[in-house]
Amino acid sequence: MGHEVRIKNVTMRFGNTTAVSNLDVHIKAGEFFSFLGPSGCGKTTLLKLISGFLDPTEGRIEINNQDMQGVGPNKRPTAMIFQNLALFPLMTVEENIAFGLEVRGVGKIQRRKKVEDLLDLVDLPHTRQKKVTSLSGGQKQRVAIARALAVEPSVLLLDEPLSALDLKLRKHMRVELRQIQQKTGVTFIYITHDQGEALTMSDRVGVISEGGRLEQVGRPTQIYNDPQTPFVASFVGENNIFQAKIIGQRNGRFLADTPMGTLECVAPAGFEPENFKPGQAATAFVRPETIRLVNGSGVQENQVECLVISQRFEGAFMTMELETKGDTIIHIRQSNNGHEPILKPGENTFISFGADNTLLLATPCDHQTKEPLCPN
Amino acid sequence: MKSFLDNFGKTGSLIVISLVGSWLIFMVIGPQLIALDYSFRHLLPLSRVGGPEDVLTWANYLTLLTNTLHRLIFFKTIWSSIIVTLLALVVCYPISYYMAKIAKASSVSLMMVGIIIPYWINELLRIFAWQLILSDAGILNQILLHLHIIADPVNFRAGNSAVILGMVYAYILFMVFPLYNAMESLDNNQIEGARDLGASWMRIHWKIVIPHSKPGMAVGCIMTFMLAAGSVAAPQLLGSPSSFWFTQIIYTNYETANWNLGTAYSEVLALLCLIFMFFMLKIFKVRLKDLLK
Description:
The complex is a heterodimer. Chain A is an alpha+beta fold.
């Protein structure tokens, strides 16, 4: 069964660069937890800290309430699946899977039994004698999972193991990884830059930004629907981002001035009231799929007149690029209802988005440091 | 072949091929055949060469079997060369591993230079340096005397040890490079993966690093053995009467104008090295093809 992992105020520095900064999170026993962040944000460092290949500069890591400081990777109850899998190419599938068992002095007959059980678990029968080099990408993936599970770890660490597979196989393996995790009850800590992976598989997700800062921890729906920081709002899913200035409050909602007029917005749960005083700069976020096309009659929340610039058909949905009177570009996404689109580029239309879907975050858009967050 | 023609043109190709071809024929194959011919003939005064007594014979080769001293020295040379090879492997394995997997890039190049620089000097001089260190009035004896560890100078050059020491030193490069090359291509994640699965350092080396470096080990062992078995300078300069090397017998035979016996023994030595090479390939389960990588 899985153990809980407590990462307590962990900081990791290499010379002058900080790879992980004051990261604090409690991963529950038997949980599928993903760390999601862009490449080079310190995710792999974090995994190496948990597995014991590195010791933190500050803070500590506890697994099953035991301090892991100074405990080597071969003594920790963790097993790691490497990004490139790191299977032993000179060994057969069986020798690979049995490697950790042999180390632990498990007898030959039990090893054979365990290998066969694991090959059943990862759905890879009759490959025991094969050389790992003769397997396909997906099969290697399964061998790597079996090899890591063979040592009965209470925590399994996965470093973007699906990144080498093609999209279809990757989607299939997501489902399977999740099933294996539920069958074994092992705590999975999964590292990825692919939000699709993080959101579909995980019980909870921790979003990490540059320099190994933990931005938000929550269930996938919370991360997507209620981002707490501008980084999460812009990194997870797509968002329309507007510079905003708070001008007041009405019916528990905030009113903010944006380049396309005054919008009604909501603040995130647990916001600090002193950051939402009138006159303060902020940023507003609207998801493309929450924006509706309307005919302009009647009174709608956050209604804006725009010009259609371009449309892109993507099968299940249609992406449209619109421009407001204030020269702001807005992307909207409409699900495909089976009809040809009515609007053509160059035509005018109205859009509306509910105040509940217009998130106001107190952090102002800073062109110096948060360039990607800023509307152009 | 087509790209060769494209690169050099017709005239160029002809020149390159004829140059390489004549080098092979006149410098390599021709002399070898002449030597082979010598080895199958009796030593005769010049006046009787080509006469009725000048017939093909195994006599020179049979001398190695009948002459007890030569036979003993032959086997001793094999045995000592194997020891040199094993010692070089033991010394170079950790050096290569350190350079390939542990050291930072900057210190690797520094170590590399440190290993290569001695090879700017001729082998003869390098071995001569060891003579200065190991001789009765040499540096080592001076230091030990000065520190009162010994009362009288020690004859370090008695027996085989000085020769073996000198050779291990002289051929380190030929072991380090193939090993380093092989180890460097090992994915670090393999080592970390094995460690993560609970393996001790011993097991990681035994199961992961050594199997991966086998081709490098085979190349290193073959080169070191061939160089050791064929070395003249080290036994000549560092040796004692009891460390006589097979090459010294060959050398003496050439010197005393018995080229027939000399060439026969040379052929035996060449054959020995060839056999050793295939033996190594067998031991390390490496194919000839893999060596060329």
